[in-house]
Write a structure and sequence with these properties.
Strand order of the largest sheet: 3-2-1-4-5-6-7
Structural class: alpha/beta
Largest sheet: 7 strands, parallel
Number of strands: 13
Order of helices and strands: EHEHEHEHEHEHEHHEHEHEHEHEHHEHHH
Mean pLDDT: 88
Helix content: 40-55%
Low-confidence stretches: none
Radius of gyration: 21 Å
Oligomer: single chain
Distance between the termini: 14 Å
Number of helices: 17
Amino acid sequence: MRIGIVAGESSGDILGAGLMRSLRARVPGVRFEGVAGPEMLAAGCEPLYPAETLAVMGLAEVLQHLPRLLRVRRHLRRHFLADPPDLFVGIDSPDFNLGLETSLRRAGIPTVHYVSPSVWAWRPKRVFTVGRAADLLLTLLPFEPAYYRKHGFHAEFVGHPLADAIPADIDRVALRRSLPLPANGPLVALLPGSRVTEVERLLGLFLETARCLAASRPELCFAVPAATPKLGALIKERLQGFGGLPLTVVPGHSREILGAADAALLASGTATLEAMLLQCPMVVAYKLAPVSHALIRTFGLLRIPHVALPNLLAGRAVVPEFLQQRAEPKAMAQALLELLATGPVRAAQLQEFRSLAGILRQGADERAADAVLTLLPAVGGGKR
């Protein structure tokens, strides 16, 4: 059995690797090929392209790289149509994967889309695009299947693999010892993103916030994880203008740093889910590129009041958000000071985090694999 699989982000790479391992446990000898990152490569995917080929964020940035992305998609379409796999799985990256899935499904190849686009947030008519592209949609959030089922499309909530991977009880002392961080004293994690463009937009803002915090709480220390050596060099270069700030740059280990920290300032994204599961109180900030933000505001594309995943899950503002012009250092520092203090603000956020984590812990890799196998005739599932 052979399965085509495409993931274009680090989070999709993790999802793909977990799905691959669970499928191989059920169907020994199954082969995978497609677009893969390091986790999927380690799980045995035969790469046609590396995952970073698709890792582009923001409307303006996508337009800049569109010709190259279209060439890659055309090549993948020709490859899989010439030698059809038993099934195709597109993981996230909807603007890339859905068009590919539609072509393959029309040719009779069963298709799965793993991770729902945010149809409940913006561009709601994508419900129909996803429904036409995929025989099965696997969702990470519990409220998503209803948007598809009411239109007659097959969608299943499988839970979130991160919730399964992160234990409910965190040993913060042990995590501090495992990292080049101060063993004692309050620690604030700063995570301005995992892409160069994000770090360029947000790092200065985050460092200014850290400077405000240090002025109020001189005992505070700070840590910034660098996802790649290139980002590490960029972060250290920007730090030169913040002499005296007690900050440690750590290669990688973003999850461990969040687990060790007393609070965090994060870019909106998957890291907010990790912080929630690690019981790390947080403030979220984000700034889009000016062109991307102007397009979204002009056309009214954003349809939700919140962007942080804990807030979306709870349906209310559990986590303070500072977006675009509201992302101001003094205001963010004040919100973090409230979370660093032992009191009702910190306690309420942590209590909500525990409740939301329980909803997401479902054994996602196994549930996703079981759902995928219902489409495969070789194991008694769907028809080709």
